[in-house]
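Input.
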Amino acid sequence: MTPAEQAHLRILKIVDAEPEISQRQLAEKIGVSLGKANYLHKALLDKGHIKAGNFLRAEDKFKYAYLLTSEGIAAKLQLTRDYLARKEQEYVAMKTEIEAMRDELAREDEHEAHTRAQREEYKTAVNSLGKHPGGL
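Output.
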């Protein structure tokens, strides 16, 4: 999934939940500039994934509401499936990497413990030779 597709998915989800959201609020929610949000929003309008409708607000000012079209709902579902599939693959890869690291640590711990035991045996042997007559 490309970064643009990820942004489109986020916008589709937000617009679905908050049809009256302004582009400025949308930009803040997805963490991009207002210009970038406008560009992404327009791309979804051009694709027919969302439609804009204006309604009368107080003091004869119009405000827009954005609604997902049937194509937009289908796109949101497909993008969600794609995103989920990618995240599941990443999860499996991460889990495999974590298991490999745990195995490596266990081997290293075992090797370190064995080396420590050998050093202790060596020290004990050297100390016992120094205590006996005829030792080194």
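The chain has one domain: 3-131.
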